[in-house]
Structures are given as C-alpha cells and as structure tokens.
C-alpha cells in the first residue's frame, strides 16, 4: 500500500506496520465517515462527499428544536387547512437563504441555497435538517438564524493518525508539509496537519467536517402531493384529490444519472429511483441486476405542469437517450433487460404525447411505451445518489453528469 502526495504526484511506500495502523484507524471508518450509503454501493462505487444514514438522507443535521423560539407567526387569521403543518409527501414551497456559520466556510453549490424553492417533504434533496424544520411550521411562519449541519458531519478523532518517519517507510520529511494531501492506494484522501522531526499527523476528516449553515426560512405554501394509489395508470388519472402536481416515470438505463438530470429541471419538485415493469414483488437491487425479475431501473418524477410540461420532460428523457433509442436493452455501456429504456405513462394524455415524440424517431426506435405499473422504491442508498456523491442538483445546472460506479 502507498501514499501519494498530490502536489508532486510522487509515490511514497508505507511499511506493513503503518498499513495496519492506517487500516485500523482510517479504513475501518470508511463506510461510516466517507460514504455510508446504507448498504453495498452500486458497482462498488464510492461516494466521497456527503454522509448519509440508513434513512437515505444525505446530510446529518443537528437538533432543530431550538428554532421554535425564533419563529414568528403572521397576525392575520387563516383557515385551519391553510395553517396545517405539512406531512410527508406534501409539496412545500419556501423562501429561504443559507450562509456559512463560519466566515471561512465555503459551501459547494450542490443545490439552490436561496430564493423560492418547492420540494416533496421528506422526499430527499436539499438538507434533511431543512425538511425536519419545515415539517414543524405552518404557512406564513418564519424562522431566522437557524443552525443546520452543512453536510459533512462532526469532526471525528478516530479519523486522525500519527505517522512516524523512519527508513523502513522511506518517507522523505522534505516532501511532507502541512497542507499536503495524501492518498492511500485505495483512493482514501487525508491531509497533513502537523509535522515534527520524528513524525507527522494526517487527518482523514473532510475539510468541512463540523461546518454548518445559518438559515432563514419562511414557509409559503403547503399543497397536496400525488396520492399513493394514483401512481399507476388509469385513462384519466388526476393524481389525487386537490392535487395539481403530476407524475412521470421513465426507464433511462442506470437510474443515477437520469435522476440527477431531472432534479436539475425547473418545475421538478421530487424524484426517486426504483424498479418497475417486472414480475417479482418488492425486488432487491441484486435481484433486478440478475435480469430474472423482469424489472427495469426507473425514475419517478413529480413536477409542476404550470412550469414544465409532460412533453418537455419526455424531451429531456429522449435527449439523454440520444441514439440509444435504437438499442434494445442497452443505454450507453449498460446492457441487460434491467437497463431497457421506456416511457411509462400514467394516463391517456401522457400516452398520446409520448407516442407522438417517439414516432419522430421512426420505426427502428425500441424505447418502450407502456402503462405505468407498480413502482418499487430502490434501496435508500440509491436515492439521489449522484447528489450524495458531490454532483450539483441546482436548477439549470449544466455541469457534466458523471454516472460513475
């Protein structure tokens, strides 16, 4: 096993004893501190940016109970319905801002951090601490200067180790300086934080571990989201009582990249990934990958049709597929029935729109067009996977989507 010092790109060998020490103090923490995705990652991929718990939320957050003392409620009377607290699955719209609590904190722009945003409550995206806080508010209520964990968790002492200089290690003290980044051969990264005559200290915590945001939030509206029993197909599916939001379902090969693409679209308020169009009840990822369950990896999108139409969403999907619309059971380098592409309509209006778009590709287009069937949510660690891995989900982001794994 080796270290590599990133500024000079020179390899430095480590002794067996040091390997054991590093393995004990750092590698054993890899799952929890660097990429705890709630289970074995897809294609053994490693997420190196944000922590996540088994609940699938990608950011650990501190208690928000203290925010109640800073809440202000408008004086005007509102109806009981207008003043109800939101529940899981509701679409909430907030006006908010985030700024680093520490002046030296520089946030990576992975999601929109100010202005008016709408999202499915407890449906992923944004800060889980923000979801928790909003769930205790009523429309018109405001809070200010609330501390929310910024996403890297607390700094952990067990992620820090002291390394000795000796001839067996072959480490040249001249190349080891404070601030130098070192990489273990397996890709784990750490920084040199102290250097003495006999040894140096490395820290494998994320540089922003312990950082937090200060947030100002006003809850503007709470609206009904699509009802669970309206997520399939019916000729005139309206997605639920008093629900103005709609649902679209697509198979676009690996669901990681497709989900992030939809997250970036204006008007999309929620996404999730899962499995559909198969026979087995509640399949697991490994079973779907075997190709024996009949399912395809799929993305379900909740959107505001006054901002983005179903036609526009279908065009986003087909643009991503490109020439793969002519390839059976294949998208990019991913092959197999579990990667087949399709548009799974929820009502006849969606069917007509999707058919007209697919017809433009000619008779050789093999993209499925079928009624939506039961959608089984994928494991928590798959949800918003690329956002968890450090890729931007900001609206209108144009950064290249890297579907690594």
Automatic annotation (TrEMBL):
<dbReference type="InterPro" id="IPR001179">
    <property type="entry name" value="PPIase_FKBP_dom"/>
</dbReference>
<dbReference type="Pfam" id="PF01625">
    <property type="entry name" value="PMSR"/>
</dbReference>
<feature type="signal peptide">
    <location>
        <begin position="1"/>
        <end position="33"/>
    </location>
</feature>
<comment type="similarity">
    <text>Belongs to the MsrA Met sulfoxide reductase family.</text>
</comment>
<keyword id="KW-0732">Signal</keyword>
<dbReference type="GO" id="GO:0003755">
    <property type="term" value="F:peptidyl-prolyl cis-trans isomerase activity"/>
</dbReference>
<dbReference type="InterPro" id="IPR046357">
    <property type="entry name" value="PPIase_dom_sf"/>
</dbReference>
<dbReference type="Pfam" id="PF00254">
    <property type="entry name" value="FKBP_C"/>
</dbReference>
<dbReference type="InterPro" id="IPR002569">
    <property type="entry name" value="Met_Sox_Rdtase_MsrA_dom"/>
</dbReference>
<feature type="domain" description="Peptide methionine sulphoxide reductase MsrA">
    <location>
        <begin position="248"/>
        <end position="390"/>
    </location>
</feature>
<feature type="domain" description="PPIase FKBP-type">
    <location>
        <begin position="83"/>
        <end position="143"/>
    </location>
</feature>
<keyword id="KW-0560">Oxidoreductase</keyword>
<dbReference type="GO" id="GO:0008113">
    <property type="term" value="F:peptide-methionine (S)-S-oxide reductase activity"/>
</dbReference>
<protein>
    <recommendedName>
        <fullName>peptide-methionine (S)-S-oxide reductase</fullName>
        <ecNumber>1.8.4.11</ecNumber>
    </recommendedName>
</protein>
<dbReference type="InterPro" id="IPR036509">
    <property type="entry name" value="Met_Sox_Rdtase_MsrA_sf"/>
</dbReference>
């Amino acid at each position: 096993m080796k270290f590599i010092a990133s500024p000079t790109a020179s390899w430095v060998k480590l002794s067996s004893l040091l390997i054991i020490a590093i393995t004990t103090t750092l590698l054993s923490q890899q799952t929890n501190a660097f990429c705890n995705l709630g289970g074995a990652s897809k294609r053994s991929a490693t997420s190196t940016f944000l922590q996540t718990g088994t609940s699938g939320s990608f950011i650990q957050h501190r208690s928000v109970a203290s925010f109640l003392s800073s809440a202000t409620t408008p004086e005007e009377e509102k109806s009981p319905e207008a003043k109800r607290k939101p529940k899981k699955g509701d679409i909430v719209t907030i006006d908010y801002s985030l700024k680093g609590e520490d002046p030296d904190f520089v946030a990576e722009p992975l999601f929109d951090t100010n202005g008016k945003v709408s999202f499915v409550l407890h449906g992923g995206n944004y800060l889980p601490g923000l979801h928790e806080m909003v769930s205790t508010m009523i429309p018109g209520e405001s809070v200010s200067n609330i501390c929310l964990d910024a996403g890297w968790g607390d700094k952990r002492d067990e992620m820090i180790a002291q390394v000795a200089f000796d001839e067996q290690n072959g480490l040249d003290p001249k190349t080891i300086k404070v601030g130098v980044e070192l990489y273990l051969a397996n890709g784990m990264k750490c920084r040199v934080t102290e250097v003495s005559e006999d040894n140096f200290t490395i820290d494998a915590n994320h540089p922003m571990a312990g950082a937090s945001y200060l947030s100002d939030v006003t809850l503007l509206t709470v609206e009904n989201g699509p009802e669970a029993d309206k997520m399939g197909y019916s000729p005139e599916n309206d997605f639920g009582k008093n629900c103005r939001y709609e649902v679209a379902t697509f198979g676009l090969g690996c669901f990681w990249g497709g989900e992030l693409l939809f997250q970036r679209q204006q008007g999309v308020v929620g996404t999730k990934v899962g499995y559909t169009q198969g026979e087995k009840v509640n399949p697991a990822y490994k079973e779907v990958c075997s190709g024996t369950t009949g399912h395809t990896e799929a993305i379900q999108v909740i959107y505001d049709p006054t901002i983005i139409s179903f036609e526009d969403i279908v065009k986003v999907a087909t643009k991503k597929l490109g020439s793969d619309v002519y390839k059976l059971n294949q998208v990019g380098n991913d092959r197999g029935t579990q990667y087949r592409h399709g548009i799974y309509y929820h009502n006849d209006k969606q069917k007509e729109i999707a058919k007209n778009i697919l017809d433009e590709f000619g008779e050789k287009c093999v993209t499925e067009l079928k009624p939506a069937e039961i959608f089984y949510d994928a494991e928590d660690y798959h949800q918003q996977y690329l956002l968890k891995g450090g890729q931007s989900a900001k609206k209108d982001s144009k950064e290249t989507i890297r579907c690594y794994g």
